[in-house]
Amino acid sequence: MKPLIVLIGTGLQDYRGYLLEEIAPHYRLHLVSPAAPTWETPYLAGSTQVADLGDADALTLAVKEAGAAAGVLCWDEGFVLPVARVAEALGLPGPGAAAVAACRDKHLTRAALAAAGVGQPPSVLVTSVAEALGAAEGIGYPVVLKPRALAASLGVVRVDDPDELATRFAFAHDTTVPGAPAHDARVLVEGYADGPEISVDSVVHRGRVTPMIVARKQLGYPPCFEEVGHLVDGADPLLRDEELAAILQRTHTALGYGDGVTHTELRLTADGPRVIEVNARLGGDLIGYLGARATGVQPGLAVAATACGERYIVPPQRHTVAGVRFLYAEADDTRIGTIGFAADRLPAAADRTVVMARPGMVVSPPPKGSALTRLGFVTAVAATAAEVTAALDAAAGALRVTS
Questions:
Q1: Cα–Cα distance between 11 and 281 in angstroms, integer?
Q2: Can you give the residue ranges of the ATP-grasp domain (predicted)?
Q3: Which of 22, 46, 343, 373 is the residue whose CA sits 20 to 30 A from 332?
């Protein structure tokens, strides 16, 4: 029989459905989620409902009752830590709960990397505006205010002087999502690392790191760091860059990471790559999907294999380019009347066009809105980055919204 994997949560079909398509032919999937499965049903061997996916004891019981699982799997940032605890409790492969905790808590990440001498921005944990002003004075402006335990650039903002810091501190301090860890000291003041931002999704087998997907991140809505798009090139030289590979290995070794797939974000500064953060899961925002289209990797098989303690062999890379563009309302508090893409305006290279906002919703762009209030997204695949960018521009222009 195919090995059994217990999957904790799935996320939205538009963002994560491709992973189940890749996993199901090779593994039996048992889903644990708060609600009964819907779109996931064709890919499942069974399911269990657990009201609180943050309850490690309840998850452990559900995994035991699912059968002889070869591994447990989660790609939801909010639940990777309790799932790591479940793996440890049941003696299943995984990254290790301490390693995942060090990724979830960005202050612990900074401490571990500092002890190992890994290149990263200076960082100070603060509890108040006064402490933040003192930290920024010591680091030197511009600085970045960052929530201690969030992801997806939520609450992250650049400040260029003391007045801006005092005004924007609450944005970093008060931004939260359900299930996020609570800390008395919630904000990091960090040095601003200038240069292009990338992410690297890697497979980790018994502590050994292999880069799998390099995404060139496109940011928007300054002074926020909203991720408005990503570009993945199967021929990206960073996939074979020895300096980057060494930094990734030192980073994961410092965190004590065992088995799994990680999403590491870095800035390519004039002084070399600087680690911004490490997520103990596969990257979101369709980066894995782009990697599959551009490089030939199968992220679903990568996360499934590592969850079972198996080594996923990254295949030779294809030389194709894939990209995604996320679409936002033009103004705050936009009420959606009708929304859709004009099919006759879509370019041939357009791959997926997805509407996420629904009629009657009220949405805003950042900073009032976030990745949670996007109108939708478009993806494109072509031979060159220029062709992909042009296709994304045209596809984005085909979205029609009325109030």
A1: 13
A2: 110-308
A3: 343
